[in-house]
Design goal:
single chain; alpha/beta; about 30% helix; six-stranded mixed β-sheet
Amino acid sequence: MKKETLHPVMFTGTGSDVGKSIIAAAFCRIFRQDGYNPAPFKAQNMALNSFATPDGLEIGRAQAVQAEAAGVDCHTDMNPLLLKPQSDCTSQVVLNGRPAGTRSASSLFRSEGRETLRQEVCKAFDRLATRFNPIVMEGAGSMTELNLRDVDIVNLPMAAHAGANVILVADIDRGGVFASVYGSIALLTPEERQMVKGIIINKFRGDIRLFESGVKTIEKLCGVPVLGVIPYYKDIYIEEEDSVQLAVKSVTAQHGRINVAVVLLRHLSNFTDFNVLERDPRVHLFYTNNTSEIAKADIIILPGSKCTVDDLCELRRNGVAQAVVRARREGATVLGICGGYQMMGMEILDPDHVESSIERVPGLCLLPTSTRITGTKVTRQVSFTVDALKHNDTTDSGNGTLHGYEIHMGTTTIGSNDGSNHSACKPLARLDDGQPDGCFADERCMGTYIHGILDNSPFIDFLLQPYAGKLDETQQTFDYAAFKNEQYNKLADHVRRHIDMETLYRIMKG
């Protein structure tokens, strides 16, 4: 690695969803390619999509992706404050990887107590900066939220603490790019404007040459150089942070492939569990809460949920619960992951009102399990084996060991008091410490707490095997790890081609 020191760089935005996370991931890979030792950092993230670090703590998925692009293990110092929305006005607060209670939006953004959070995120950055160079920082939302200026700990105040060069990212695809860039900079104080060293125009469609005059106009208006105009891409696949696009993936069943329906929950979390299936050429994956579409699926997956009890009640109200049970009875496979696994059981108990005021709600009764919601969150990376796969030793390690992670609140036990015969049911997996996980009724009905179980090719092959007759003989299995690495390189090449890297390095060298 190069010894040369670069100042941190912060990619902040004119608004949400302008591409900050992806741009940061691209530069994590670019700096790695150029011989540096980069690491990502986002002081405060708000997302349901999280990840477990190697030491069993929780961070936002976006920073885990950026760390992967940088070629380093993820750590809570990369995202010291994570807010996981539970309703429109409340969020679970995860501080330095551990739950720190539930807070309302009004209390979370009051000045009282905010200074404590500011100190924590600054300490996390300082620790990270001693181990990596450069630090690739990401802002949140717009950098010019005037109503939150006094309590902002993630945008320009964080950049000031880090001594970071700020690069403003704007999304031209949504329109109004001149107003959004100029307005974002014009509303800053003179001291804040000095921190903004460059502008990136993102998601451009068409002939970039037609925007050359636009670049000059922006530079003249703002007095800040435009470092590049990055074209919109459709052929590069990086894990998304937010689930806002899942509804557009609700295309119904197709012929010639195995149709996999992910039930679209209101509080769906860790939707990246299904990225592998989405890319697998044998599979047609779609998200839906339409009962007629669920009936057409070969495999139905009940995903994780931040509010399992509330989502289960909603599935009963909209008829999806009944549709899933009926599909299972008619021969479809049902797989539950985390909260979805809890839903598949006989009951969910919440006597301590951790999630809601409902103390008991009946499950789908597809598995003979009982779940009790607890206030203690389990977060850890795990290695495990699946008994059903032991006859098929096709893993890289040669010993049948698979890998994933857990993030859940609640304990589930196999056993039922309803008098039914579930003697054939057993744990789905065995963790490397000997603990059982999940419940396996048969090859078409099972549940697990393990996120990322679908990142393991042997398990996907096992899941799809009952429907192999639907497939063309030329369709092959899918190597997700190699695919992701290829996508990071493609993203880095795409961004590098359209950014003035010489100027950016000059800025970062001071």
